[in-house]
Sequence to fold (131 residues):
Amino acid sequence: MWSWFYSPHRLPKAYNQWISSAADIDPRLIQALRLCRQGDFLYGQDTGKAPLLTSLCNELGMPPEWGDPTQTVPIPCELYHCGRGKSCEVHGITRFLQSWKFAMELYLPLQLLSKLRSPGTKAYLAAVADA
Fold:
């Protein structure tokens, strides 16, 4: 995940796209976090990167100044959560459940298909447990 987040160019393109679809995070937010790490998106300084998150604020119906690091320190959690609520704990649980659902949609059918060679109730229960 570190490579996907900070060095996506190091990953195969298809793998990068798959992780991006699983993550389901607005690319502007990812870019802002990458810029923070590089030192190009700084609180209290005008680095010219404010339009990156102010456009996200406008799209989500939030005050545009929330996305400007010269006006708002720190960026509010609601913006990081892309308008899905104020609570970081609730957002974390929601993200976990979304990721679990995504994984089950992918791995459960694969596990079930692999158990077709030896059908039986035990094999199908094992497939669900292995997914």
Observations:
- The radius of gyration is 20 Å.
- Residues 88-114 form the longest helix (27 residues).
- The CA atoms of residues 78 and 86 lie 5 Å apart.
